[in-house]
């Protein structure tokens, strides 16, 4: 039996995958997926480290309420990746702490 | 429909989920001109969340119960939009309601970095902002791979993705069965559904359950899907720890007593690569409580808006439908949206609609009571368990604030520890902080309340707003 998949379940026929860039590496993404969804599909669960403990975090609530899935997207820190669409060529960088190290004096 | 900043509408509906959609199209049926706002880019809210058009899903109904109800509402909306009676505006995050002489100004942001500020004016507002999940912390709950049950559903329904291959579903409430059944149907293995209660409370009020046969059919549907995939719920049990270093690799499950206290010696380890966890839903009512709307605590301890039979809140001109009046699901939200639309349009609803709402509300109350967290859940916490995920505040710090520094309420605990001051503004840690703030041996813990009923959350801003926008003042003033 063919393994069940979410796409198979809903009879999805997405167009060809495009790519986003995650920490310098190309990650496939489908039209309409959020950045977080593209990263999950690639097996990536964490793209931020916390400000105090330096612990890895990724999606928790998936609906934009918890702010755990923050990352730096196209140079902008603190973007909720569960809400931001993955566009061709979007550059996503693991965010360390508050993501504003460039502002340090 | 005019989009000038000076437009003045009959009605703004906030939230395009089941309640808001039903409210908007019914109000338009009754001759009202309205705008329907939502943070998402399409209608449906969380319940009817569906794949983006680009994913080309031919059968979105396979991830949904009652999909045709949604498509029916969406078709009516499209018709009203063509006729210029309703306008749906997605991507709008409402951060405040302001009362004016004529009615309300609804303040929202939109665009990347919330860069655009929008103000919409209307005589009346229907609040249908839904709910978010109640979370109770446990050791390891901040590990990547631990996601909310609703979050797993949302990511699956919109992005067609799973957080892992072996997903333990845990917590309490009917959402767990729905989540587990969609996860297995979509190809994940679910080694366990761990439910803290025993479902006995439903059996004690059979007439309430029998009055809503659709709920039985829905529940039976989830049960059948789980049986087919050999998933057995573990009742009166909880995940008391998630294991792993950089991502979750397993959980420890323990049996609970009637107060949700873990029973020593009953621990069992289960391997998994993800956990979907949640303890019911909490009404999202900040926009109304900031205007001083009356609230009441439901049978599950969650604070909801108090409304009359016409879904009117205590704030003149402000109606509320669905989860904001106490969590009860999509069918109830639709009934309340229709009732609110009739009331604000001065039209008499059918008596059958009122009766339907009463039956569904009674079932919702039963459900809420059945899944109310017991006070013993704090028994699975450890001193180093983070309570506040944003500010990384551990249990020990909260207990120190209560026991040594004399903090007697969540607000003081927050000021002393920063728990609840972070990005999510206490939406994730609020119930836990409220419960721990009550301390041991206090009135709240002796009353058997597992979650503090500390009054409604107050948040002057319903969502983050850039300071530059506030400094710029009203967009069209």
Automatic annotation (TrEMBL), chain A:
Gene3D superfamilies: 2Fe-2S iron-sulphur cluster binding domain, sarcosine oxidase, alpha subunit, N-terminal domain (3.10.20.440). It comes from Streptomyces rubellomurinus (strain ATCC 31215). This is Proline dehydrogenase. Keywords: Oxidoreductase. Coiled coil: none annotated. It holds the Pfam family Fer2_4. It comes from the Bacteria. GO terms for molecular function: iron-sulfur cluster binding; oxidoreductase activity. The keyword Transmembrane does not apply.
TrEMBL record, chain B:
Keywords: Oxidoreductase. Pfam families: Fer2_BFD, Pyr_redox_2. One of its GO terms (molecular function) is oxidoreductase activity. Signal peptide: none annotated. It comes from the Bacteria. Residues 10-337 form the FAD/NAD(P)-binding domain. Residues 387-434 form the BFD-like [2Fe-2S]-binding domain. PANTHER family: ANAEROBIC GLYCEROL-3-PHOSPHATE DEHYDROGENASE SUBUNIT B. This is Oxidase. It comes from Streptomyces rubellomurinus (strain ATCC 31215).
